[in-house]
């Protein structure tokens, strides 16, 4: 089933300009226009839709566009060890990010309890954020 670029982008939940950007980056093929009078209409098929879904899923997992390009190249070369290495590296980065977020949550939860306790002086939450910019 042939799709226009707007149908392709809508199906993946991205904008047309995002599809074009991925094409410029070499992540998606820019299909040849099919001649229709003076101009040409580009049609996309299930392979492009699948690749676009892959790109979006990989981005959701935190891979950069450069890394996604490498994953796409690895798929054609069947270099599973490198793909596993990239996944492990990404998992380690996610683990670090989760640890930072959990620490931030604990800190904010403590500040919220202190703020709820009332008392004189500035709100502990606001005071904490005001002082955060002065760390070295």
General description of the model:
This protein has 136 residues and is mainly α. It is built from six helices and two strands; from the N terminus they run ααββαααα. It has a two-stranded antiparallel sheet. Helix 1 runs parallel beside helix 3 (46-60) and helix 4 runs antiparallel to helix 5 (80-116). It is elongated, with a radius of gyration of 23 Å. The protein starts with a helix and ends with a helix.
Low-confidence stretches: none
Major beta sheet, strand line-up: 1-2
What is the tally of beta strands? 2
Quick one: biggest sheet?
Answer: 2 strands, antiparallel
The number of helical segments is: 6
Radius of gyration over C-alpha positions, nearest whole angstrom: 23 Å
Strand content: under 5%
Order of helices and strands: HHEEHHHH
Given helix and strand content, the structural type is mainly alpha
Helix content: 55-70%
Mean pLDDT value: 87
Distance from N terminus to C terminus (CA atoms, Å) equals 58 Å
The geometry reads as elongated
């Amino acid at each position: 089933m042939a799709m226009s670029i707007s149908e392709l982008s809508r199906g993946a939940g991205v904008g047309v300009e995002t599809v074009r950007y991925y094409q410029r980056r070499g992540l998606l093929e820019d299909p040849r226009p099919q001649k229709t009078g003076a101009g040409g209409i580009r049609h996309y098929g299930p392979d492009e839709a699948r690749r676009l879904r892959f790109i979006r899923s990989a981005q959701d997992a935190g891979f950069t566009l450069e890394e996604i390009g490498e994953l796409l190249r690895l798929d054609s070369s069947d270099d599973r060890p490198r793909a596993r290495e990239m996944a492990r590296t990404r998992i380690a980065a996610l683990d670090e990010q989760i640890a930072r977020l959990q620490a931030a949550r604990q800190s904010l939860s403590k500040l919220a309890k202190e703020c709820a306790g009332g008392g004189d002086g500035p709100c502990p939450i606001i005071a904490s954020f005001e002082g955060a910019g002065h760390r070295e």
